[in-house]
Specification:
18 helices, mainly alpha
Amino acid sequence: MENKIFSTEVINRERQNELDFAKAMMLFFLALIHCTIACTPEPQLAYGIPYLFDTIIGGPFSAPMYMFAMGIGMAYTSHNSPHDFFRRGIKIEIFGCILNICRFLIPSLVGYWITNDYSQYISPLLYRFFGNDIMQFAGLAILVVALFIKLRMPDWLMLIICLGMSLAGTCWNGTDVGNPLGNIFLGYIIGTEDAAGRVLSDFPLMNWLIIPVSGYIFGKKLLYVKNKAGFYRIFSSTGLLIVIVYFPIGIINGFGMFGEGENCYYHLITLDAIACLALTIGMLGIYFVLVKYLPKKIMACVGEISRNINVIYCVHWVIISISVNVILYIMRGTQTLPVPLTLALGTGISVISIVIAHFWSSKREKQMFRGHK
């Protein structure tokens, strides 16, 4: 198999269209996912279209693909020294802090100033602002990979360590140290919870690190693939076979990430992590076939959306926070919307975020061009 699929030299350096398409799909659905969660009463998230966007599309189809793609990007970048990754990790952590100021702190203070509604805007602000989200996780994950590379750790040892961390994280899920700040900051590492359910420990490092590290190792192997059709035929088929068996069992029985409550997903158990990896690799194989039939103009748009991933992510969150948590709540006294209006709002925010990111990136490119003249 190695002679037919893998080369002995790096041969697959160009952009991976299937990865760009995967990221573009995920980015488009982000606003629909987050609007569904924000505008739907919690009991209604357990069934129908809200369940689809919250638990399925917003679950295994979403963050794992972002993390896996981040890992592949780390394998493909030419800026791949421990120092480069350390700087990148710190940069993402700073972006995460700035994002929290723009999507939580400022809208909450404005909303409170207008309404004087303490319970809506001020009471949860500490948890929202300092809580662990995917940007904080991404920065920490890159810093850990930088350490692995600095220690010249072989791929197999990285995987064993991450698997051990995942198992430990699974065992420690639901930890409560009895102190709000302690739970918040420990929640960056393990899945913390308190009795009130207010701790935002969304992507603890122990539970999720296995996914970007697996993406990094996958990307290193992908560099040597000379027969991508054969490669995906084997690995994607295997991944999809796992998904076809595991997902129906999980959905029907409410097991693991398919259970009730957000932490069933955010505090990912090891079996779910393996299933998410299987789904991600399986979907990359499907996208590999699909992008062959898409026109070049569409793929050019897909590539730009993929490159603007961080900008689109930040912009869509700021728009949601302002439009839903402030404007909608002040106008109607509630964030709840019917499903059709929720999906329409999410679609509009997705399109607006992509357009804003397009002009932002175009402006930056012009500034860089002028700077090099």
